Amino acid sequence: MNNSTCGMMTEEGKEQPENVKTGLPVLDVTTGLLLRDGKFFCGRRRKGMSMAGKWEFPGGKIEPGETAGRCVVRELAEELHVSAAVLASLGIIEHDYDDFRIRLHVFICEITDGSEPVSEEHTEASWRTIGELENLGWDECDIRIFPRLKRWLAERGE
User: Fold this and answer.
1) 11, 61, 148, 156: most buried by Cβ count inside 10 Å?
2) pLDDT for 80-102, tens place per residue?
């Protein structure tokens, strides 16, 4: 399924991807692309999880009353046992699955306490360059992060 970020305008004046299904429940989640020495931390989802075997960046559901920025910092602490700060936002990616729409708030983050991430939710987890990341098996929604990430890196001269 290809949900481009170009599309029709809604009544509120917001851009809506062309083939986004209306009427689906929306799940607001964050993802944190932890950056260190030109590499990003990612993990492979373990068996028994939805999308098992797919690679992902850490993150999770935004709680009621929580901002996306606070959510990603909380999720990095809970999932990886690190203190982190947001460096930049790469915006929001909307993507439809069969029974729900995900609204993915994408952030570039850095570890602030010098600790090494420890993941209990993944069968594999490691630091990877952008080139290495693109060769892993990602979910359709997560694949859409890479053009934004490349643009952000290019703007920084990396």
Assistant:
1) 148
2) 999 999 999 999 999 998 888 99
Alpha helices (runs of H) in the chain, residue ranges in sequence order: 68-80, 130-134, 140-143, 145-155
C-beta separation of 132 from 114 below 8 A:
no
Burial 62-97 (b: 16+ CB within 10 A, else e): beeeeebbebbbbbbeebbebebebeebbeebbbbb
Q: Token pair of 20, please?
A: 């986004």
The predicted model scores a pTM of: 0.83
Rounded Cα distance between 109 and 27, Å, is 22
What number does CATH give the domain 25-155?
Answer: 3.90.79.10
